[in-house]
């Protein structure tokens, strides 16, 4: 488990470029964590983006993400094979469509359209990725 204290200590030891990657990784990890708690937020794309930034900024946190019970399997499958399983695609797409509908019901229009854009880009990313590991031979 990564604690706030260990994150801070690692932050102090890193250079400015690594800190930028760690900050971006932390931001997208926060979005992914919100996705665990609120199913209308796309967890998988945010976890993948977060893992990418942590791979550049903090090997320790990146390895923790690969072993995490919520993010580990999708992150490993993406990094190792560039795939997103069909079940994850269905869950992510459904939750984002529900989230977009709720945004239009509860939030004013300029913000709802911004949420639509983020969800549309995320859905496009998720649905255009491969679903199976292909082997040669």
Would you write up a description of this structure?
It contains seven helices and no strands. It has one domain. 77% of the residues lie in helices and 0% in strands. It is mainly alpha-helical. The model has no long low-confidence stretch (mean pLDDT 87). Helix 2 runs antiparallel to helix 3 (43-57) and helix 3 (43-57) packs across helix 5.
Concise account of the structure shown:
By secondary structure, this protein is mostly helical. 77% of the residues lie in helices and 0% in strands.
| Element-by-element helix/strand order | HHHHHHH
Please count the helical segments: 7
Fraction of residues in H or I helices: over 70%
Distance between the termini: 40 Å
Shape: globular
Strand content: under 5%
Number of domains: 1
Q: Uncertain runs with pLDDT below 50, 5 residues or more?
A: none
Largest sheet: none
Q: Could you tell me the radius of gyration in angstroms?
A: 16 Å
The tally of strands reads 0
Q: What structural class do you assign from the helix and strand content?
A: mainly alpha
Quote the average pLDDT.
Answer: 87
Features:
7 helices, mainly alpha
Helices, strands, pairings?
Blueprint: H1 4-13, H2 16-37, H3 43-57, H4 59-67, H5 72-81, H6 86-106, H7 109-127
Helix pairs in contact: 2-3, 3-4, 3-5, 4-5, 6-7
């Amino acid at each position: 488990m990564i604690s706030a204290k260990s994150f801070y200590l690692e932050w102090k030891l890193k250079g400015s470029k690594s800190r930028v990657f760690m900050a971006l990784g932390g931001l997208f990890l926060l979005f992914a964590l919100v996705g665990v708690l609120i199913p209308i937020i796309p967890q998988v794309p945010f976890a993948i983006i977060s893992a990418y930034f942590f791979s550049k900024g903090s090997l320790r946190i990146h390895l923790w993400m690969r072993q995490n019970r919520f993010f580990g399997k999708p992150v490993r499958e993406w990094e190792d094979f560039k795939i997103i399983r069909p079940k994850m695609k269905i869950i992510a797409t459904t939750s984002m469509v529900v989230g977009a509908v709720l945004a239009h019901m509860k939030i004013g229009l300029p913000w709802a359209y911004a949420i639509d854009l983020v969800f549309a880009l995320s859905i496009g990313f998720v649905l255009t990725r491969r679903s199976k590991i292909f082997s040669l031979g």
